Structure formats: structure tokens, C-alpha cells
């Protein structure tokens, strides 16, 4: 039987039946598209109770601490899969066969080079420019170099653009780091895995061969997987909104990168390291945590707007964090001991347990990236690299939807009512 919600208005004189749309997981959704018949519209700042689209890509249940990519629990993918296989899954909806996986990987790795003229863009940036500033500009500029894949209504063009973005974003990200550090750009090596190649472009020098550490490569690959998508967050919604206007995919991804830059979104793991620097040492942790309780200090990397239980990505990242620290012999490093003390208190103190302020994925990923030698300003760039496949999957899903409409939120106007213009010499 079809579910409906009956809305009464106009002091009960009128009513409107709103259909209820079923979901495969999670709560059903009230379709309010006919609500405009009432002469009113809904008010929902932050879109906390509003579904802006229908999607088959990612499902989150914050109360139960669940995150599924195309139905697969994130814990299983992080443990058994790798990032490029997850990319295939997010884009195509199913896990690849061995043949499909090999072909997909080969295609991605054969397009890692960027147009040589693109490298000259970096000379226009100051050496101390934030890497995210460079990412926004250079990724947006891709549309000036790859003009043969800009017809968004052409399925083959969309496919080519998706491959180009997944392939070239790591190269651009590494170039942002190298330029910022005053180091020469390093060309990709297609004989390496996707993640090992990125680390090669980041950390190798022309002076000697670079041999990626498999433990560290695996750790970074898991970070990529855990950050590949997260439903309709701010940056994904930005990509969809930009794409709804018909903007080209490179411009849409640049818009997503710009949104991700915000400290309330992709900058959260960067804020964790800044907080650790502010605390300074383990002996100052108790006083800091008391300050958190008194609301004079802000605890970064704990709790999550969506997850009211343990972030499922955090439990995976916690294990990876300890593996990396053990591999690098950093168990007794002062900063990491400080971080582990914060973790211990948060997991044992009733104040944090009752408020469900568990360590989230940003807490652990920031520590891991720091241990890998990735500087703090690059943390959000790593996030953008990983999230590109999620953004482009949502963009493609939206463009392929025949019911797509340009995004146009309404507003509640609370400004001045109509008034007439008064010449300057008559204004009091």
C-alpha cells in the first residue's frame, strides 16, 4: 500500500497529500515537490532534514555507525580491497572481475601524465602558496587543456573525463607539494601501483631510486579508500550543484576542492595536528581536557556531525595508525604519545563517552599522514585526491538522470519591504 503524509494548513481548512518514497536502506522520504501548491515552502538551514537527490552510491547510518559504498561495508573494503577497485565500484556500481580490474587499472595508470604546458601554471604561484590554492586553480585549468571531453551529454566524453581526473589528480597533488617545497617535479611511474606512484612523485629525488615501503603504501591506500565518498556532504553537494548548471566536470571538481578547503570540512585533520601543537606535551593533556569540559578549549578530531556512534572509518584507521607508528618506530615520539593520551582519555572518561565524542577518522588520518612525512598543509590535498572519485561518481549519476534539474534553493526573505528611491540630497 502506498504511504502518504497528509498536511493540513490554512487553519485546517485545506489539506495536501504528500507521497512517501521508499528507500532500500534508512528512513523513507516525504516527497514535498507539490508543497508549493500551499503558497509556502519549507525552511531547513543546513539541509538537515532535506534530501536533495536520489542516489545509489553511498549509504550512511550515523546512529548505527554504518557506511556502505554501493552496499559494501567500508570495513570490508578497507580490509580486503584497494583504492582503484573501490574507484571502479563507485563509478560502475559493481566490483570488477579480474579482467575488468586489470583493464581499469591499466587505463588509469596510462593517463597519469599531465600536459607539459600545464606545469607552467605553477610558476604563477608564490612558492609559499597553500597547496589547496594551487589545486583549485590547476584542476579548474584542466578544462583548457582537455577540451575533447567537455560535452557532458556525451557518455563517452564523461567516461574520458572521469578517467582523466582519477589519473591526473595525484600527479597535480604531488606537483603542488613539490612546488611548495622548492623541489623539481617528478614524472609518474606507471609500473607502480596508484598509491605507490603518488608517494614516488611526492618523495623521490632525481639523485637516487625511490623504493616505496609496502606498509606505508598500504596505509595511504586505506586512507584513500576511507575518504573516497561520504554521501551528500558539503563538497559533494557543491559538485552536484555546480554540475546541475551544465558546467564542465573539471570546473565542478575544482568547486568541490574549494569547498573541501574549509576547516569545518576537509581541514579537520589539519586542525588535529594544530591542536596537538597547541597542547605541546603529554603532561598538559589533563588540563586541556578539563578546558574542553569547561568549553574553553575545542577538541578537534573527536565526534562527528553524522555519526552518533563510533565512526566506522575511525576503527579501521586506528589499526592502521598503530601499524604505521610501529613500522616507523614512532611509538615514543612526543607528539604521537600526546595523541594517544588524548585518545585514552576520550575512550575512558564518562564525559566524552556520554556525549559520544569518540575519535573520528580525521584524528587518526592526521597522525598517520604526519608520520608518513606529509606536511600539514597537504592533508586536505590528500583528502581531495581521495574524494575525487566520489565527486565524479555523483556528478556522473546526476548528469545521467533524465529528471535532473538545475539546483535552485529557495530562501526566507526577512529584509526590507518595498520602498521608493530617494535622491541623495533628500535623504536625512
Automatic annotation (TrEMBL):
Catalytic residue positions: 304, 362
Source species, domain of life: Bacteria
Gene3D superfamilies on file: 2.20.28.60, Citrate Synthase, domain 1, Cytochrome P450-Terp, domain 2
PROSITE patterns in the cross-refs: CITRATE_SYNTHASE
Annotated catalysed reactions: oxaloacetate + acetyl-CoA + H2O = citrate + CoA + H(+)
GO aspect biological process, one term: tricarboxylic acid cycle
Gene Ontology molecular function: citrate synthase activity
UniProtKB keywords: Acyltransferase, Transferase, Tricarboxylic acid cycle
Keyword Acyltransferase assigned: yes
SUPFAM superfamilies: Citrate synthase
Any one Pfam family match given in the protein's UniProt record, by short name: Citrate_synt
Pathway annotation from the record: Carbohydrate metabolism; tricarboxylic acid cycle; isocitrate from oxaloacetate: step 1/2
GO cellular component, one term: cytoplasm
Protein family (similarity comment): Belongs to the citrate synthase family.
PANTHER family: CITRATE SYNTHASE
Record-given protein name: Citrate synthase
Lineage: Bacteria, Pseudomonadati, Pseudomonadota, Betaproteobacteria, Neisseriales
Amino acid at each position: 500500500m502506498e504511504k502518504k503524509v497528509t498536511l493540513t494548513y490554512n487553519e485546517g481548512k485545506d489539506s495536501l497529500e504528500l507521497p512517501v518514497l521508499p528507500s532500500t536502506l534508512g528512513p523513507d522520504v516525504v516527497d514535498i515537490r507539490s508543497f508549493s501548491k500551499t503558497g509556502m515552502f519549507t525552511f531547513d538551514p543546513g539541509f538537515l532534514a532535506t534530501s536533495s537527490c536520489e542516489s545509489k552510491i553511498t549509504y550512511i547510518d550515523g546512529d548505527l555507525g554504518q557506511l556502505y559504498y554501493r552496499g559494501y561495508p567500508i570495513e570490508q573494503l578497507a580490509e580486503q580491497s584497494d583504492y582503484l577497485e573501490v574507484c571502479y565500484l563507485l563509478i560502475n556500481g559493481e566490483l570488477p572481475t579480474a579482467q575488468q580490474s586489470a583493464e581499469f587499472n591499466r587505463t588509469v595508470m596510462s593517463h597519469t601524465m599531465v600536459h607539459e604546458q600545464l606545469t607552467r601554471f605553477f610558476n604563477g604561484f608564490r612558492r609559499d602558496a597553500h597547496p589547496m590554492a594551487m589545486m583549485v586553480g590547476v584542476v579548474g585549468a584542466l578544462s583548457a587543456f582537455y577540451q575533447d571531453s567537455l560535452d557532458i551529454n556525451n557518455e563517452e566524453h564523461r567516461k574520458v573525463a572521469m578517467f582523466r581526473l582519477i589519473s591526473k589528480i595525484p600527479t597535480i597533488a604531488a606537483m603542488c607539494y613539490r612546488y611548495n617545497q622548492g623541489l623539481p617535479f617528478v614524472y609518474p611511474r606507471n609500473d607502480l601501483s596508484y598509491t605507490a606512484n603518488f608517494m614516488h612523485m611526492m618523495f623521490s629525488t632525481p639523485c637516487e631510486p625511490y623504493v616505496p615501503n609496502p606498509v606505508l603504501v598500504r596505509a595511504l591506500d586505506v586512507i584513500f579508500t576511507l575518504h573516497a565518498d561520504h554521501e551528500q556532504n558539503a563538497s559533494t553537494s557543491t559538485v552536484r550543484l555546480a554540475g546541475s548548471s551544465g558546467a564542465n566536470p573539471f570546473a565542478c571538481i575544482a568547486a568541490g576542492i574549494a569547498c573541501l578547503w574549509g576547516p569545518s570540512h576537509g581541514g579537520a585533520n589539519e586542525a588535529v595536528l594544530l591542536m596537538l601543537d597547541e597542547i605541546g606535551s603529554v603532561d598538559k593533556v589533563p588540563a586541556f581536557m578539563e578546558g574542553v569540559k569547561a568549553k574553553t578549549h575545542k577538541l578537534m578530531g573527536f565526534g562527528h556531525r553524522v555519526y552518533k556512534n563510533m565512526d566506522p572509518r575511525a576503527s579501521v584507521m586506528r589499526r592502521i595508525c598503530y601499524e604505521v607508528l610501529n613500522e616507523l618506530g614512532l611509538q615514543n615520539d612526543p607528539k604521537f604519545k600526546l595523541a594517544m593520551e588524548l585518545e585514552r582519555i576520550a575512550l575512558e572518561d564518562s564525559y566524552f563517552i556520554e556525549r559520544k565524542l569518540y575519535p573520528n577518522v580525521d584524528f587518526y588520518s592526521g597522525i598517520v599522514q604526519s608520520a608518513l612525512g606529509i606536511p600539514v598543509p597537504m592533508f586536505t590535498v590528500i583528502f581531495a585526491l581521495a574524494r575525487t572519485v566520489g565527486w565524479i561518481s555523483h556528478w556522473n549519476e546526476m548528469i545521467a538522470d533524465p529528471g535532473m534539474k538545475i539546483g535552485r534553493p529557495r530562501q526566507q526573505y526577512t529584509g526590507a519591504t518595498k520602498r521608493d528611491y530617494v535622491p541623495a540630497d533628500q535623504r536625512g
